[in-house]
Write a structure and sequence with these properties.
The protein is an alpha+beta fold and 151 residues long. Helix content is 21%, strand content 28%. It has three helices and six strands; from the N terminus they run E-E-E-H-E-E-H-E-H. Helix 1 (44-54) packs antiparallel against helix 2. The longest helix has 17 residues, at 80-96.
Length: 151
Amino acid sequence: MIFYVDKDGQGKAYPLQVKTTFSNSFRVGMTHGDFIDENGCFDEIKGRKRTEEKVQCPWAFVECNGTESNPKFRVFILNRQQVIDLIVASEYWYLTNCGKDKPHVKPSGDVGLISIWLKGKSGKATKMHTTIFPNPLNGISQENNWNNIWI
């Protein structure tokens, strides 16, 4: 869903893509296949091109927690380039960091961004991912960073 927001009441509208989650992962409307070539290998050029087509404006990520009677929301605002860089970096890490030459997932699987990445964190290495995610947000949380809309 794209909303249009008005900066400082000046009547100029800016598009804003909104993603919500009740878990710790945001689906971005892309599949792993968008990043895999005909040989089944990670293809950054193909993936970046598709991501740039998909991401046309800043995105607001809304994390919904709490209870029905006491809901809690956290909002993370990323400018267009931050969204693109985060999606491409996450797919590179996810598809190539399991010690195999070819991605270990189905091409039809959904691409997701984990909420801790929006907080500027990298997470931990796991059994499947032996290295820590190299977060392009570099330790800087984008929570309530509304200025990213105007960039």
